[in-house]
Amino acid sequence: VSGKGVNAALLMAKTSSLFRCLGKRISDTGKLLYEVNNELCETSVNGMFVTMIAGLYRPTTGDIKLVNAGNPPALLFTEDGLGREFEATAPPLGVLRDTLYTEYEFNLHNGSLYIYSDGVTEGYIDENSMLELSGLFKLISYMDTKQSAQIRLKYIVDQFTQNAQPLRDDVTLLLIENITA
Amino acid sequence: MIRLERIHLLSRADKLQPLRNFVRELASQQGCCDENLDCMVMAINEACMNVIQHAYGGREDGEIIIEFWKDDCELLVRIYDFAEKVDLQAIKSRDLDEVRPGGLGVHIIHQVMDSVEYKNQPDSVGNVLEMRKQLSIPVKCNVGTSDKNKTKNSL
To answer: Which of the ends of chain B has fewer CB neighbours closer than 10 A, N or C?
Structure first.
């Protein structure tokens, strides 16, 4: 969500409520974000917006449908070490009414899907350098996938929290894997 | 133009096999004719092998980013590296009359692709190779092979 403070928190609460409520009857994620976006455009304060990645994951098949509304790209790290980006196909929610959100469709196979806020890639790993997507990709490339997801996520976050640089943004980092693989 | 994919890989030869598989599937999905499929895979493979060997000098911790764009029937491939800027004038194929293995990557890339352009990245370290190919027009010169298993890391 853009900004900080009470206004931002209220907008986030409204967005998550809309998402949960409308999501119970709209299973198409592109259509779901279309409806959430229009609701936010009608009622939100000008200039405020929310970035979101929404999707459906079927653990039994590994199929994923994913929509990215203005968020940094999701990163699928494949079993054989390629990093595939799923960039935003539309602006954030609350910016432009009747925006269409295109779905990505792919299979997770034995890969790892990382979804994160800009606080991750814009986290400072030293005085002058942000982690950036390239840094995140390299970190993931060298991690031992036999380690638990929790340890790997903590390792990434430690890169920009365990140094002298103060955190400048909130951090969200999500990892989706097929744990039965 | 529409960006189809943006992928990252480390500058390691063992990442070229998954890259070849990925390019083959993507080009096939985008309507690349059978005659071009192996040639396209080989050209992109050669371009990345050159990055690994010559730009990164065999360093395995470099990063390569490949973008695939499409406009009607034309595929645009951009290969980015973040190594030291290379002397663009020095990129050329060797004498083909010299019979020995290796060193034919640049020749193959030029034979397969409709246009090839090497650039230095303007705002940072690194280089960009930009290649274009009409997917439906077969490669004129027979540099490829119909057997995908014959595609090698370095020719």
So the answer is: N
Lowest mean pLDDT among A110-114, A133-137, A158-162, B99-103: B99-103
| Stated pTM of the model | 0.88
How do residues A24-75 score in pLDDT, each as one tens digit? Answer: 999 999 999 999 999 999 987 778 999 999 999 999 999 999 999 999 999 9
Q: Give A-chain residues touching B65 at CB under 8 angstroms.
A: 134
CA distance B105 to B83: 19
Q: Which of A78, A84, A134 sits opposite B63 (nearest CB)?
A: A134
**A146: exposed, middle or buried (C-beta count within 10 Å: 0-12, 13-18, 19+)?**
exposed
Chain B CB contacts of A137 under 8 Å are 8, 63
Q: For chain A, what percentages of helix, strand and coil (3-state, to nearest 5) are there?
A: 35, 25, 45
Amino acid B53 reads Q
Are the C-beta atoms of residues A70 and A22 closer than 8 Å to each other?
no
Can you tell me the ipTM of this complex? Answer: 0.90
In angstroms, rounded to a whole number, what is the distance separating the alpha carbons of residues A124 and A41? 33
Cα separations in angstroms, A25 against A20, A28, A32, A35, A60 = 9, 9, 9, 11, 22
